[in-house]
Amino acid sequence: MATDTSSPASAPATETGYQQPTVDVGSLLELLDGRYRDVRELVRTNLVTYDAVLEDAEQMPTDDFRDRVRDLVVEMAATGQTGMGFPSEYGGGGDIGASVAAFETLAFGDLSVLVKVGVQFGLFGGAILQLGTRRHHDAYLRDLISGRTMGCFAMTEVGHGSNVQALGTVATYDAETAEFVLTTTTPEARKDWIGNAARHAELGAVFAQLEVGGERHGVHCFVVPLRRDGDVLPGITIEDDGLKMGLNGVDNGRITFDGVRVPRENLLNRFADVTEDGVYESSIENPNRRFFTMLGTLVQGRVCVGGAGINAAKVALAIAVRYADRRRQFEATNPPEEDLLLDYGQHQRRLLPLLARTYALHFAQEVVADELHQVFSGLEAGEESRRRLESRAAGTKALGTWHATRTIQECREACGGQGYRAANRFAALKADTDVFTTFEGDNTVLLQLVAKGLLTDYAGEFEDMDQFGTVRFVAGLAVETVIEKTAVHKLIERVRDVLPGGDEWDQEAGLLDPDYQRMMFRFREEHMLAGVARRLKRGIDQGMNAGEVFSRVQDHVIAAANAHVERLVLDAFLDKLAGLPDGDQKVALSLLSDLFALSTIEADRAWWIEHGRLSVTRSKAISREVNGLCRKVRPLAVDLVDAFGVPREMLRSPELLG
Amino acid sequence: MATDTSSPASAPATETGYQQPTVDVGSLLELLDGRYRDVRELVRTNLVTYDAVLEDAEQMPTDDFRDRVRDLVVEMAATGQTGMGFPSEYGGGGDIGASVAAFETLAFGDLSVLVKVGVQFGLFGGAILQLGTRRHHDAYLRDLISGRTMGCFAMTEVGHGSNVQALGTVATYDAETAEFVLTTTTPEARKDWIGNAARHAELGAVFAQLEVGGERHGVHCFVVPLRRDGDVLPGITIEDDGLKMGLNGVDNGRITFDGVRVPRENLLNRFADVTEDGVYESSIENPNRRFFTMLGTLVQGRVCVGGAGINAAKVALAIAVRYADRRRQFEATNPPEEDLLLDYGQHQRRLLPLLARTYALHFAQEVVADELHQVFSGLEAGEESRRRLESRAAGTKALGTWHATRTIQECREACGGQGYRAANRFAALKADTDVFTTFEGDNTVLLQLVAKGLLTDYAGEFEDMDQFGTVRFVAGLAVETVIEKTAVHKLIERVRDVLPGGDEWDQEAGLLDPDYQRMMFRFREEHMLAGVARRLKRGIDQGMNAGEVFSRVQDHVIAAANAHVERLVLDAFLDKLAGLPDGDQKVALSLLSDLFALSTIEADRAWWIEHGRLSVTRSKAISREVNGLCRKVRPLAVDLVDAFGVPREMLRSPELLG
Fold this sequence. Notes:
Chains A, B: This is Acyl-CoA dehydrogenase. Chain A is an alpha+beta fold. Chain A has 25 helices and twelve strands. In chain A, strands 1, 2, 3, 4, 5, 6, 9 and 10 form an eight-stranded mixed sheet that branches. In chain A, strands 7-8 form a two-stranded antiparallel sheet. In chain A, strand 2 and strand 3 form a beta hairpin. At the A-B interface, helix 10, helix 11, helix 12, helix 19 and helix 21 of A face helix 10, helix 11, helix 12, helix 19 and helix 21 of B.
C-alpha cells in the first residue's frame, strides 16, 4: 500500500531501530481474552448458535421478540454462561470475574439479550445475593440462576433517576401482621423503566423508604411478588413503557404499589433488619453510610455496562475497518484504479485513534474487572479497596460508554450510505447502546462522583463520605464538607512534586517515551483537581450560595474526573505493555498506546499549552506524530480488529464485508 | 433563578450598560420565519393536521407505513406545499425560495415524509425540470407536481456513492430504432438506495454513461419507465433495500437494467443531445465541465438537506431545553427543594452553545437559500455566483447535518432515560437524521469540495475547474492542477493583510467585539488555506506521489474548509444582527452570536494559540466568558426555543414536557 512504506513523520531520533511489526491475530486474541479465555469462548459459541436473534430483532413483533429473548436467555443459562458469578452451592459458577467476562463478550451480539441477562442475573440476582441473607439465597437463587423465576430490579422512579436516596416509594412496617406495606405515595414515585417488569418478572427487588413506628430509616430493598401464573397480583399496577429507541427485546415497565403487603422476611436484611415487634436494627449506624454501603454492593452492574460499551465499539470498528480496507473510492494514487478508503489520511484519522482508544479501554476494563473480582471474592478487603473500585467502575463506565456512542457513530459515517442498512449492524448498535450513557448511572453524574472521591481521597479522610451515590456532592452542604476535608495546599504540593525534573523535563523527553506521556496525564489530573478545590473553597469563602458555586465549577469538576480516568486508562495500557515480552506484538501494541496517549493529548492540547506544559512547537509535533502513528497502524488495522474476536456472524454486513 | 442574578463573569469594561433582555417570542419567530412566513405557516398547519403520522411511524408494518407516507405526500401536494419551486404554468408556485422554506419547515415532523417529498419533488422533479427541456416539462411536470406520477432519482450505484463520474450503468444509442439501451454492466453498477424505487416509482431519472457509435460521452440522465399499473417492466429488476436504521417510510430499492430500451426523446437534453442518426451534440464542449454543470443544477437538494438538519436540531433542543427548565434533580441551592437541571452549569454548557450554534446556522441557511433563489430565478447570473452557491451549499449542508447529529445526541443524553422512549421523539430524530451526514454528498467529501473551490478561487482562476463534484480534487492529477492555479504567495499576503492592526490588535479588542470575532475566524481560515496550499505544493515539488501528498494533507484540507464555513456562518449571524433595530431582541441575539463565536474559538483554541493569535490569558478569559454567556442566556432559553416555532404536536414527549 502506498502509505505503508512512507518514511516516518516524527524526528529521526525517536525512530531508531523501529521496524514495522506484524500481528499474530491468534496470539493477540489470546492476550485480549486473558484469564477467562474459556468463558469467552463459550459465549462466542453461544452467540453463533443463536445468531438468528439478530434478524429476529428486526422482524418480530415486539411481544414475540421479548419472549424470544427471554427463551434465549433461559437457554443460555442452561450452558452455565449467565450464572458464573453466583455461589456454586446454588448452581452458579462461583467466579465473579468469569461472570464479567461472559457479560462483556455477550455484548458482541444482540444487546436486548445482553440487557435481559443484566437485569435478571446482575441486577435482580445481584440484589438477592448482595443485599439478602441465607434465607433469601435459599429461597430464590437456584431458580433465578436457572431462569425458572424471572425477576426485576425496581429502583428508578419517575421523579428520581439519579438521586436514588430521595425515592418516594414507602414501605411501612405493620407490627400486628409482621408485614411491610408498600405504597407509591405520589405519581412521581411510580417505578419506571424497570426491565423485565412489563411482561416477565414474577418477583421484584423493590427499593423503598423504610418506615417503622413512624420513623424513616432510608432506602431499603424488599422482595415483592409481582405476578403469579402470568397475572399481576392485587394492589400492583404494571404499565408497559412501550416502544423504545432500541433494546425492544427487553420489557421495560412502570410499577405502582397500592398497599401491597409482604412478610417481614422479605426485607433483604444483610445490612439492616426489623424485628418482629418493630425495632429497626443495623450494623451500620450512620444512615448515609448504610445507604451507600448497600448501593456499593451493586457496583458489578457498572463494571459490566462499561465493558459492554467497549465491546460494542469493537463490533463497529471491526466492520468499519474491514470495509475501509476493501472499499475503493476515487482514483488518487494510481489512476485509474481507485484507492482504498483506509489509505486516505482523513479516514485513518477517523478510525485509528478510536481503535487505539478501544485497546486502551479494553485493558482499563480488565483492571476494573479484576479489582471487582478481588474485592467481591474477599481476596482484597477493606473500605479503601471498595472505594477505589467504585470510583474506577464509575469512571470506566462513563468513558467506555461515551466511547461506544462516539465510535459507533464515526464508524457508521465511515461506511457511508451502506452503514444505514439494518442488516449492517449499525442501526442496532446505535439504537441499543444509546441508553448506556445514561443508565446504571448517568455519565455526567458518575464523573462528579469520581471527582468527589478524588478530592476526599487526596485529603486522606474517608469516613462517612457517600462515595457511591452522588447526592451529597451536588448538595450545597456537601460542597463545604468536601472542601473542609480537602487540604488544598497538599494538592498543590503534589502537583509540584509530580514532575520530578522540573519545568525542563518536557523539553528532553521524546513524545513516545511512556514516562513523558504518563507525566503529562498525571500533571493534568493533579492540576485540575487542585484548581477545582481552590475554586470551590474560594466561592464558599466569599459567601456564595454553595449550589451556585458548584454550578459554576461543575464543568471543571467533570473535566478533572475525566482527566483522572484517562490517566488510569493510560496507566492500564502501559502496565500491560510493561509485562509483555519484547517482540512484534509489543511493538504493535506500543504503536496503539502511543496513538492513544498522543491523540488524547492532542485533543486537549490547549489545556496543556495554557498551563505551561506544552510548547506550541511541541504541540504541532504531536499532531504530526499522530498522523505518523496512523500510517504505521494502518497496515495492521485489519489484524488488530480481527484480534477482538468478534464472531463473523455477529458482524453481518454482507454488502460491506463481502 | 439562582444563577440568573449572578454578576457577569467577564471584565467589567465589556459589561457597561448591559441589561438582561427579555424575548418577545412572537416577534422573534417572525424574524426567523423571514420572508416566507406564510409558507412556513402553511407547512406548520399541515404538520399538525397530519400529526398522527409520528405514531404511525412506530406502529405500522413497513409497507403500510410506506403507503401511508405516499398518501400523505400526495395530500400535502394538493395544498400547494410541495410544488412551490416549479413553474406556475404546470401547477407549481414559481418561487424557489418558497420551496426551500417549505421543505425546511417540514423537517419539524416525520422525516420519512420529508425525504419522500425530497425524492419526488426535489430529486426526481428537479432532474426533469433542470436537465430536461420543454418536451419533458410538458410530459411530466404537471403529474409529478400533483403526485399522480411518482418517480425516483437513480444516480447512486453500489460501487459508486460519492464518485458519480465513474458510474457503471451504460446507455448505448441504437440509431436503427432511435432508442437508448440501458444496461447494468457489472454487479457494482447496480443502482442502490434509490428512494421511491422499491414500491412507488413509475418513472426513474436514471444516470448512465452515454455511448454513441462506440464513443463514450460521460454521465447523462434518462427518463426510464419502471412500472406500469404497479408491475415492474420487462428488463428491469427491482429489489427492496429492506429495513433501515430510520426513514422506513421511504421505499429505497436497487435497480438493475438488462437492455432496457427508451426512446431517444427520453434523454434529458438541456445540456446535450443525440440526433436521430446518432450524432452527439452539446453546448458545453468540455466533458468535465458539462458533467459538473449538469450536477450543479441539482444543488437545491443540498440546500434543502442542510436546512432540514438544522430544523431537526431545533426539535431536539426545544424538547431538551424545556425539559431542563422543569426537571429537578438533587438539592443544591435551596435544600430540600431540588434544583432545575438548567440551573446547573454543566447542563448549560451542554445545551446553550448548541442553541447558539443553531441560531447561527439558521441565519447561514437563510443566506444560502436566498442565494439559491437568486441564482435559479435568474436574478443573479454568472458562473461565479453559481460556484459560490455550490460551495456555500456544500459547506452549510456538512456543518448543518453534523450539527444535527451532535445536537440530537446531546439533547437525548440531557433528557436521561426518558429520552430513550420512542414517544419522546429522540428515537426517530436520531435514526432518521443519521443518514443526512452521508447522503446528498458525504460531508467529508463536501468539505474537500469547499476547500478546493477556495484554493482555486483565491488564485482567481475559474475555468474548467470541476467545482461541484469532487473527483478531480482527490485525483492525483488535480492536486497538481490546483497547486499550479493557486498562487501561494498571494494567499500568504492575504493572511498578513487580513489583520489590519498588526499583531497588537487582539490585545485591545474586547472578546465581545464582533470585529475581533470576525478577524479571528478570518485569520484561521486564511492561514489554514495558505498552509494547505504550501503543503500540497511542497509535496509535489519533492516528487511525492500526488495521491499520497493528498492523503497526508487531507485532515488539514478539511479543517480549512470547516474554518471557512464557520466564518461564513458567523458573518451571516453578524450581518443579520447589524440589520436589526436596537432593543431587547438585538441584545438577546447578540448574546447568542457571542456565545457561538466564543464557544467556537474555545473549541479550537489550541489552533489560535499555536498560531500566535491567542494568548494563554486571553484563552482562559474566553472560557470564562462562555460560562458567563451561558448564564445570561439561561433565563431566555425557553423563549429562544419557543421562537423556533416547532408546533407542540411535533414535540410529543408527554413525560418530558408534561
